Structures are given as structure tokens and as C-alpha cells.
Protein 1
Amino acid sequence: MRLVLDTNVVVSALLWRGTPHKLLAACRDSATSFYTSSVLLQELAGILDRDKFAKILAANVFTAKDALDEYVNFSHVVKT
């Protein structure tokens, strides 16, 4: 199965432990592939850099770059 996740779902999956996080975790170990693009990654980077997420990232011992890198590591980036 191939999935393209909405940026808000990715943010939720990376920062909290709810259903989107469980989806990412389950799919990492299956035949599911995540697809994204440079445009979606730029949007994700911009959202993760917002001040309102700084405390959440710090509590998870992550930076915005760490969170973005984690997502990129298990996603296929499609050239647009």
C-alpha cells in the first residue's frame, strides 16, 4: 500500500502518541510505503519550526530538523 499523508497528520504523528503516531509506527513495519514531495517537506519544516511546537519538541528531545529527518528516513520523496 502507498500512502501520502496530509502534513497535519504527519505533525500529529511526530509530536504526539495518538492514532496518527500509531499509524506511522504500524506502517513502518509493514509493506506500506509513505510518499511525499519536496513541497510537502517544506510545508512540514515550516510547521515544525513554529514557536508553539518548540516545547513539545524539546520534551521529546527532538529538534524540528530531527523530526523532519525521521519522517524523511522512512518516506519516498517524489520529484515534482
Protein 2
Amino acid sequence: MEKNEVKKYLLKNKELMAKFSHYVSGNLYYNVQIEDNVFQFPIETIEADYIEPFEQGEDERQVIVLSSDLGTTSFESEIKASFLNR
């Protein structure tokens, strides 16, 4: 099934649920089972990740900037798969 076919399938099947799989390197991963295939969708949560230079007498520090479109979004263990179509 190609990418566009998956998107169409998700839009048609509004009751299909996606299940949270794991979080790694700033991405949440949700799995959706369509027929005999499992498709995985990453959701980025980090907009920037960098090392901030240190000032005199301070150690350098890592800065993580959360994605601005997260807002107060809650990520549930199961969500409607059609929500992943963005």
C-alpha cells in the first residue's frame, strides 16, 4: 500500500485506532494496522536541540526547544488514526 493509499484509507475509516508504540529521539511513534500491514507514524515533539555555548565560569548546556504546535496537546495511548493524517 502506497503512502497516498494509506492516507485515503485513514480518512475513510474514521473509527480505526492508532496505538502508541514508543518515544525516541524527540519523536512519538504510533502504529496503525491496516489489513495485514502495520504502518508507523512519527510525531515530532522537538523543534530544536542544540548545545548552548558557555559563558565564562559556566559549563555549556544542552537546550531543547519543544515544537510550537504541541501547545497543550495530550498524547493518549490510543487515538483515532485519521488524526495522524497531517
Protein 3
Amino acid sequence: MPKEPPAGYPRISPYLNYEDTGAMMEWLKQVFGFVPRHIQTDRDGAVVHAEMTFHDGVVMMGSPGGSFQNPRHLGQSTQSLYVYVGDVDLHYEKAKAAGAEILEEPDDQEYGDRRYGVVDPEGHRWYFAARLET
């Protein structure tokens, strides 16, 4: 019989495919502050599935192999993620200092967020934001 997801598992989680999931996990940890929660490896020790948390959010990721191409190799964006942080300007400065490819500088949006955009090394687009005081 189906059950509710366990505590700490959101009902919807993005799943990102990476060519080198292990390397991307380290990058997401160092640059964005994500925390590894689960890692599954193959016989050779390569990460084939992983889960990382950021506050109450979870991002799942894996290496599909075969004919998969990440957004960087495709030459186009395939999706983007939107993540709320406490201090978007501090988060931006840390990402920029780490050499992240910045898409957009922090800017106030008409819908009430202050946001910046960045691309990870495999071409996935991330937007980090904080709500403006209203």
C-alpha cells in the first residue's frame, strides 16, 4: 500500500542529470552551500544517484550515461531552478568569488524578489532570490 513520503522529503524534487555527479556534488556544496544527504555509487565508485539538501529543499541528481548530453554540451538551457536564500547578495558574492558563471547580477524584481542568476559547470541554470520587504 502506498505511503506518504518520509519526513524531510518534499513532495516535488527536481532531478538533475550530470555527466559527473560526484564533481557536481562537491561544486554545489562548496559554491551554493548544499549538503549531501544520500549517495549511491556504482562498482567503480562513480556517483550514479545522489540527493542534496538546502534548508528544507532537496535536489536529486544522477549520471544517466549513454547518449545523455548536459545543457553545456547541448548548447542550450533545458531548465532552471529557483532557490530562496536568506541573504541573496552574500550568496551572490560567494558564488562569484568561487568563479561561478554569472548570468544576472542581483537585481530587484517587480514581483517582490531580489534575484541573481548563475550557471553551474555543466550548464544548469540556477536563480537565487530573497523576498524584498513589502
